[in-house]
Amino acid sequence: MPEAQPPPAPNKPAAAAGKSLSGPAQAMVKLGLRRDIDLALHLPMRYEDETRLQPISALRDGQTAQVEGVVRDSRVELRSRRQLVVHLADGGGELVLRFLNFYPAQQKQLAAGQRVRARGEVRAGFFGREMVHPAFKVVAEGEPLPRTLTPVYPTSAQLPQAYLRKAVASALLRAPLAELLTPEMLPPGLPTLREALLFLHQPPPATVLETLEDHSHPAWQRLKYEELLAQQLSQAAAQRERAALRAPALTAATGGLVDQLHAVLPFTLTAAQQRVVTEIGTDLARPRPMHRLLQGDVGSGKTVVAALAAAVAIDSGWQCALMAPTEILAEQHFRKLIGWLAPLLAERGRTIAWLSGSRKGKGRKAMLEQVASGEAALIVGTHAVIQDDVVFARLGLAVVDEQHRFGVAQRLALRAKLESSSGPEAGAGPPLEPHLLMMSATPIPRTLAMTYFADLDVSTIDELPPGRTPVLTKVFADNRRDQVIARIRDEIERGRQIYWVCPLVEESEHLDLQNATETQARLGAALPGVSVGLLHGRMAGADKAAVMAQFTAGQLQLLVATTVIEVGVDVPNASLMVVEHAERFGLAQLHQLRGRVGRGAVASVCVLLYTAPLSATGKARLQAMAETTDGFEIARRDLEIRGPGEFMGARQSGDALLRFADLNADSALLQRARAVAPGLLQREPQLALQHIERWLGGKAEFLKA
Ligand code: ADP
Ligand code: MG
Predict the structure, then answer these.
(1) Fewest C-beta in 10 Å: which of 105, 329, 500, 526?
(2) pTM for this model (two decimals)
(3) How many A from CA of 94 to the centre of ligand 1?
(4) Considering the domain 257-461, what is its CATH architecture?
(5) Going by CA atoms, what residue is nearest to atom 10 of ligand 1?
(6) 298 CA distance to ligand 2 middle (Å)
């Protein structure tokens, strides 16, 4: 229903207007509605039927209806609160329109004698039938009714529905909607794109709304297919682009660094580790940049695989960069790796450079020189490793640990950096690009791997090193805290160590710290004689490292921590983890946390404390945790509970890459798009690019991140 005062029509769609955007226009840009085509593809979430008028006498309670009449009486009354009460009569009957909030302008529009069209839910009021806060507008007698259903679009507070509606309607007239796809590229029986869009934005009154709401209507199918095809095409295009790039072919020399590393390892590789090492070795030996994800559950031993890959690169005379999302993770993840490699590198006169946000000034300058001269064989740190002032002599391999925790911007920066980090090649020829190995403990479910990550090769470590005992998970309401504390006492008496994890408090670091500090004090009081440490995100890097070192050395028995310990901490003697307010954590996060225990032969327990009442998804998450320790199963359930949201950084920025299609519900369309995309790109690359551009516009870049 149009507002009482429709806002002025938007002249040109936002982006064209340039700098001085008005509120709504700016809000439109924020929603990603820049081009005419973006607006045309912004589809209604539901519809309102304003095509009909109901006689007031025929209204039923509970019904949503539109009526038209003349205001017989309009006055502000002071009952329990101030309100505007309007009596509307259409000749056959009378209806009360009641407004608890209203502006003087609205009061004027609803003055006696005005002809008004109102739409809302009918209910039985004290003085007969009424509508509370109906949508209304002043009309002239005989004003025609809309001929199509009125679309209701997803929007934001700054963007009035009526403004957006006009913007979409006019964009729809201008948007280039030429049919790019021929019938053989489409599933049978679907309308053209233009037909589908006109139908969905302006459905005729007789339309069965269910088929629009459940998106089963052919018009919806067409749009979902278009979207899936664009996404598949962009993946295929990225794959091709990459195939054309060149990289240094890296191979290990017999008796070289790789063999020496094997000799100093305190264990032998599992069969799964051996397999992925071979897969990675094969990639590295090719003159094409590797683009591989190494996925393996928490504790499956990814680090040593990274170390072996680094050794291959260094053996071949190239540098290797290792990155983790935070400083504390970089330190913990790579400590062992450095311990293994440092002596072997020192024998060769090579160094390890450490680059992080906190290392500044002279220290950093010296490191940068070693990186630029090639003296540093291994460059370790956070995303500081890819900052502009870092110049690599010969970067052959970049390894990104916990890659899903890097933001999209950081991943795009990494890509750009890699493109410009090509080392010199003997003789002429195009510049080389380094190989890229990403590691993650959050496995990508198969359906997602097929759709979003078609451009990525995946290696999986599907086996834990021997001697691990599965963690037992228990879910308790937090009124059983005393029992948990008794359990802690038992474990400590047996010489074990314990983690106590506090959740982030409403993203307030201050409260968060306060909460963690209080927990430390409370537990200290409840457990006399026990040394309780605190690890918190706000602590300086050196302090964190000191606390971790104490815990690792067994000087602290209980460690209270916020999620800074989420990944990477490795203390085999820790046998119990308590997670407070477990219902506030995501499933992947809980799984990561739980991976901190059960790292030795000790039987371990993870206690998830929750505070009632639990939401349905909260319950499903905790149940999943109690039922399985398998990271793949957890990822599958996560996808089920929450949708694909968290699996890629792009999603975290709120940009769902699939707006209309649903990977599960639309698998038939997806199969079809997968089958069509490669051939289409091959035969008609121009058309394929046009289609990608139409659908993804500026987002295509994100798909590569
Ligand atoms: P993640 O995959 O979570 O990064 P890590 O690489 O940190 O796992 O390995 C977890 C622990 O298992 C480390 O202490 C590591 O040294 C050890 N480890 C790795 N591979 C093996 C193996 N094949 N046998 C025994 N222990 C191993
Ligand atoms: Mg790791």
Answers:
(1) 105
(2) 0.69
(3) 78
(4) 3-Layer(aba) Sandwich (3.40)
(5) 299
(6) 7
